[in-house]
Amino acid sequence: MKPRDLALELEPGSAWPPTLDRRKRQCSIHALAAAPRERMVAGRQCNLNVFEAGNADRPAILFLHGFPDCHQVWSHQLKNLSDEFHVIAFDLRGCGLSGAASEANAYLIENLLPDIEIVINAVRGPRAQVHLVGHDWGSVLGWSFVSHPEYAERVLSWSSISGVHAGLVLPTLRSQWRQGGRHARAVLGQLLRSWYVAALSLRGVGNAWLRWGGVKALKAVLAQGGVDPDDAYLAMDADTVNRRATASVALYRQNLRKLPAAPAARSITVPVQLIVPVLDRFLRPVVYEGLGEVCRHLERWDIAANHWVQRSHPNEVTQLLRSFINRQIETRAKFRTTKGGLNSELPSVQASLQRHAQANETPIRTEGVTNGSTSRACRLDESGTLG
């Protein structure tokens, strides 16, 4: 919003402060509350740059970015959802305008999770809850956040894109390998695509790659992951590369040495939406096979897109997020007005999903809605059509 949008037109000789009628005063206050804003929040080991937009009285969505990114990777979703929600995103430590932590093991997953809670506390309050969305390493962090009993209490719903719980990767691949045939071939395909993980985990390799490759190397990775050459997100210089990736490359080196434990069966109670770009250059669909066993309420959407799907298919991702979060809000509202639990509400919730889809002209296919879990399979084709 431009400053002029909130400017007051005064007649010569008018008194100050000006007297606004009630309607104009309310509109000005609402515009100020909804305008995009950034601030620094004090973290445990460094300051965190936090972006927010939309009215803070509305339900909150917190976005977590991955590597090598900053909060701006969510720019389309932040803009398009801010009219309906309070949208929040922050630069993870070592990324964007946030500070870089120098302590030993500062980039271990267990040491990054408190940053998420600190941001929620600072922006929404110490008891507030948010709808959480993550991509890439942001998704990896989000899975650990919602599988932690205390942190999970801060989350109303969880939408994961291009990421999986770090503790589930190896058990899932081993399980798929034992099944042989196409499952084993899928595991081999994933291992071939994971060479960069091993390379970046070696001390000095990641920083050397960034130092020698610089802007060209980072642009090449984003382009391979589906970011359009004309996307403004690719407009970067050496300083941008340094702020996005130089410190945070430690994510690979530190976490491969100490992977978190896998969640127990059906231990994740937060409603989960899994968005899978099936053309992902870096993560094949096989890595997600173990998630159904640890989530009580999971729905999955397959999209014919590459890794950075929120950049290549912004409208489709925004549509899925808005629909899923609104359904969770509707479900919670129903839950509050009944004496029964969530399981007893599922049949009526399924009917409400169909009504919601028809109202928004979104062809949502509901499948396998059962007591105790929700599984929905849908594919988004290359034309952007849900089916």
Describe it:
The chain is of the alpha/beta class. 42% of the residues lie in helices and 14% in strands. It has a nine-stranded mixed sheet, sandwiched between helices. Strands 9-10 form a two-stranded antiparallel sheet. A hairpin with a 4-residue loop joins strand 1 (37-42) and strand 2. The chain starts with 21 loop residues before the first helix and ends in a 7-residue tail after the last strand.
Binned, the helix content reads 40-55%
Low-confidence region ranges: 1-30, 342-387
**Separate helix tally:** 15
Estimated share of beta-strand residues? 5-15%
Going across the biggest sheet, name each strand in turn: 1-2-4-3-5-6-7-8-11
User: What is the CA–CA distance across the termini?
Assistant: 37 Å
Biggest sheet descriptor:
9 strands, mixed
Mean pLDDT: 82
Structure summary, number of beta strands: 11
Estimate the global geometry from the Cα principal axes. Answer: globular
User: In terms of structural class, how would the helical and strand content be classed?
Assistant: alpha/beta
Task: Set out the fold topology.
Layout: H1 22-34, E1 37-42, E2 47-53, E3 60-64, H2 75-81, E4 86-90, H3 109-124, E5 130-135, H4 137-147, H5 149-152, E6 155-161, H6 169-178, H7 181-193, H8 195-200, H9 205-224, H10 238-246, H11 250-255, E7 272-277, H12 291-294, E8 298-303, H13 309-312, H14 314-336, H15 342-359, E9 369-370, E10 373-374, E11 377-380
Parallel strand pairs: 3-4, 3-5, 5-6, 6-7, 7-8, 8-11
Antiparallel strand pairs: 1-2, 2-4, 9-10
